[in-house]
């Protein structure tokens, strides 16, 4: 198997996974699809990630990429054609679409899903998106406000698409993927002919153009096969320090990384550091040595001890 072979751990209904799947299509990539549970525990993913619980995760050999910011950056590095970063401010767009707009879309989607939602799913996702003290009644009370917010923001995008095929011009790119996955998620809950969505004709036509791009070429792979691939591989990421790091972190220090929004800590030895990324070197009895990559933005780091001996 090629050292560049993409193994993607996801599940079909995941909107954040759809963001990456459409990028696979835009870059015409071939990838292996490993389906993971929608709810913890994710027994055969944990050896790779060290306990990171969010979806999706990308694996290339013994290098494991967590969070779509990190995944997209790595895809652009390995597969630079077509170029997804005509300007790096496109990355900043994700702070809006993955932040305030995402929160509004999730609020509306959860309310729409709630009549048929399994209680264990709500019990898992509610604290993840809305904090430990969330209640479904509170979410329902914010439905109209969130729908109004989406209407305003989708209106901006609809006007942008009046005179162009894609958000950055004639060709699809990162900006399209960062917006599309939210419409994809909401469209599945509100149905395509819903009057709310029909307010945005340019947006809906754009979404149909994105739909035709597809997801590249994928084949199924079992989670056990993915573990075996990691076990036989060696991490390909070199050591790197960042002399300008505000925390003064050094390669070899034992640290823990966790999402600012909440979630389990992943522990290991710092292996690679730059302004965009933190990489841990971890040992696991099932897969051996792996590098686990996280974005700097949106993640908290703390020292757990001195340098690894």
Automatic annotation (TrEMBL):
SUPFAM superfamilies: GST C-terminal domain-like, Thioredoxin-like. Pfam families: GST_C (PF00043), GST_N_3 (PF13417). It comes from the Bacteria. InterPro entries: Glutathione-S-Trfase_C_sf (IPR036282), Glutathione_S-Trfase_N (IPR004045), GST_C (IPR004046), Thioredoxin-like_sf (IPR036249). Signal peptide: none annotated. Coiled coil: none annotated. Residues 4-83 form the GST N-terminal domain. This is GST N-terminal domain-containing protein. It comes from Candidatus Terasakiella magnetica.
């Amino acid at each position: 198997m090629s050292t560049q072979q993409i193994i993607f751990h996801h599940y079909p209904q995941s909107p954040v996974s759809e963001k990456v799947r459409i990028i696979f299509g835009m870059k015409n990539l071939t990838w292996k699809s490993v389906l993971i549970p929608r709810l913890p525990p994710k027994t055969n993913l944990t050896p790779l990630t060290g306990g990171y619980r969010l979806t999706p995760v990308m694996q290339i050999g013994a290098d494991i990429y967590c969070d779509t910011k990190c995944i997209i950056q790595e895809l652009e590095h390995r597969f630079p054609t077509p170029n997804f970063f005509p300007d790096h401010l496109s990355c900043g767009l994700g702070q809006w679409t993955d932040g305030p707009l995402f929160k509004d879309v999730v609020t509306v989607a959860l309310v729409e899903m709630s009549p048929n939602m399994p209680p264990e799913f709500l019990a898992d996702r509610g604290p993840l998106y809305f904090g430990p003290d969330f209640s479904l009644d509170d979410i329902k009370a914010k439905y109209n406000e969130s729908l109004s917010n989406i209407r305003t923001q989708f209106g901006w995008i609809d006007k942008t698409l009046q005179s162009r095929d894609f958000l950055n011009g004639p060709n699809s790119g990162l900006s399209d993927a960062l917006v599309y996955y939210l419409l994809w998620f909401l469209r599945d809950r509100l149905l395509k002919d819903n009057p709310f969505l029909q307010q945005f004709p340019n947006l809906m036509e754009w979404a149909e153009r994105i739909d035709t791009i597809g997801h590249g070429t994928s084949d199924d792979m079992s989670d056990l096969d993915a573990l075996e691939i990691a076990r036989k591989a060696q991490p390909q990421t070199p050591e790197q320090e960042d002399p300008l790091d505000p925390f003064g972190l050094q390669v070899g220090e034992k640290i823990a990384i966790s999402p600012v929004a909440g979630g389990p800590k992943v522990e290991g030895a710092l292996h690679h550091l730059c302004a965009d990324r933190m990489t841990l070197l971890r040992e696991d009895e099932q897969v051996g040595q792996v590098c686990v990559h996280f974005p700097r933005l949106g993640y908290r780091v703390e020292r757990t001890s001195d340098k690894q001996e």
